[in-house]
Design a protein that fits this description.
Length: 145
């Protein structure tokens, strides 16, 4: 009797895990969005933005609950409107480019209460150059007059 109960418990546990993994795989089909964007080289102190297009590829309405960035240097903006099947919306991700060097940041999109999708931005921030070199002729003109 103990063996039968043990076998039934194992079988039920295995079935439960298979059902959960099936739901997780199906959740990927609800939305389609580019996995990342590479800004390339950007100048320090010049914020940049990119519009990710999120498309509802499922058969139910998608409602974005939250879009969270991995740090304060990255700012996502999105609409709170529901997305009907086949429709799209924009998620704008900004990066402040304050720190010099390579960066890679993640943005996690939570939708329909239980699903998440993570996208990434990356690039390199180059040291800011002065807009124009100093003009020494101006100093000379000031001295002559």
């Amino acid at each position: 009797m103990k063996k039968i109960i043990l076998l039934l418990t194992l079988a039920l546990g295995t079935f439960s895990l298979m059902a959960q993994s099936g739901n997780a795989a199906g959740s990927e089909d609800l939305v389609s969005i580019a996995p990342s964007h590479d800004f390339g080289t950007i100048r320090q102190g010049r914020p940049v933005t990119y519009d990710f297009t999120l498309t509802n590829t499922g058969k139910e309405v998608v409602k974005i609950d939250n879009v969270a960035a991995s740090c304060g240097c990255t700012t996502p903006k999105w609409s709170g409107d529901a997305i009907a099947p086949g429709q799209s919306t924009l998620i704008t991700v900004g990066y402040n480019a304050a720190a010099e060097g390579l960066f890679e940041k993640s943005v996690t999109i939570s939708y329909n209460g239980i699903h998440t999708k993570t996208i990434y931005i990356k690039g390199q921030v180059a040291k800011s150059m002065p807009s124009a070199p100093p003009n020494s002729s101006v100093t000379l003109l000031k001295q002559v007059n």
